[in-house]
Predict the 3D structure of the following.
Amino acid sequence: MPELPEVETIKRGLEKCIVEKKIQKLHILCEKSFQGEPGAVEGQKIIGIRRRGKALLIELSNKLTVMVHLRMTGQMIYDGSERFAAGHPDESFREEMPGRFTRIYADFEDGTHLYFNDLRKFGFWKVMDDLDLASDKFLNNLGVEPWEMKPAAFYEVLRRHAKAPVKAVILDQHNIAGVGNIYADEGCFYAGILPWRECGSLSRKEADKLLEGLCKVMQASIDSGGSTMKDYVRADGTRGNYLEKFAQVFRREGCECPRCGAEILKTRTAGRGTHYCGGCQK
DNA sequence: CTAGGATCCTGTCAGC
DNA sequence: TGCTGACAGGATCCTA
């Protein structure tokens, strides 16, 4: 599940691989995954890559931007002298490209390729001009990046959604950008808060700690992006390891809590699998 | 305005 | 073995 740190990792990886390269041809293998005219992209040079929340924005020499959203199972794979892949952590990036799950791919002028794989077809590429960008609903309604969120503003958000569970509110991209299921659980664990607590029941101190936790777990994951990337790049297909390295509760049900030793449990909150420690989260 | 559930898609896995 | 249903979880849409 690509969340903010995974998308940032892709951005940093692709910056080194595809900036300054010219797109020769774009292959659309799944119509649903691509919005726009492939012809508007072909012949263009990639001049920069930005990220906003979980969205990747690839800027082209003709002023158009390709917005890429990986949703749940998207992967970006660059195949040059070596292979860089990041996004949804499964093994399909090791396969021959284009593969079973390749929905779009680009041929660069220098003979290298960029593949977009997406098992469940929820992700997309969308060609946009300045007007589209300025009026885009997703981008316009997106909350601020976690590290730009002021503690007072975060507390305000929680007051506004006083009856909703904490986890639902931090997952909502309108409230804060980039948090997904993994970092929502990890942030709640950091703050010692049960994810289904009503937002209105949090003290200012708890709210501050939650915001701090979200920033810290995501920053730690971004900082390890280099090693994650390296793992993905290897031809032997070793899996990226941010979950093993950093997750305290996510997919750890049945394990011992690293903080208090109680058992990590799993339940459902806000319609999602939710991992928590019954011992030290209140 | 908010809260909560259904929806989109496809592969994997548990249970019979 | 082969079927069925639950599950995965980002964002949008719909209803109350």
The two ends of chain A are 27 Å apart (CA to CA). Confidence is low (pLDDT under 50) at residues 229-239 of chain A. Residues 204-223 of chain A form the longest helix (20 residues).
